[in-house]
Design a protein that fits this description.
The chain is globular and about 30 Å long. The protein has four helices and no strands. The protein is mostly helical and about 100 residues long. The N and C termini lie far apart (about 45 Å).
Length: about 100
């Protein structure tokens, strides 16, 4: 951390150094997975997390989860690739289902 002990140091250098120190922490922020991004952009407008945590679940295994993701992306005409569908299934499984 830069300490302004020399009063002759221009204020803009002190501010720039402080901004640099503060901004380095954001570089380590976790990135959003492809599955999470697709889900957030296309699914949360209708689904809340309650859809995945209900008492009487519609999805009981990984295969059924994949079928539901495929069903709804086709229903909404999203045109996801097999990799996109797999990424969403992986995201939902990691966050909610844990099959």
């Amino acid at each position: 951390m830069v300490v302004a002990t020399d009063l002759k140091m221009p204020l803009c250098l002190v501010v720039a150094a402080a901004l640099l120190v503060c901004s380095t922490g954001s570089a380590a922020a976790p990135s959003v997975s492809r599955g999470e991004a697709l889900y957030d952009n296309h699914c949360v407008s209708c689904h809340t997390c309650q859809a995945h945590t209900r008492r009487d679940p519609i999805v009981r295994n990984l295969g059924e989860l994949a079928q539901q993701v495929d069903r709804w992306q086709a229903n909404q005409k999203l045109g996801w690739t097999p990799e996109d569908r797999a990424a969403v299934v992986d995201y939902l499984n990691r966050v909610f289902y844990k099959f």
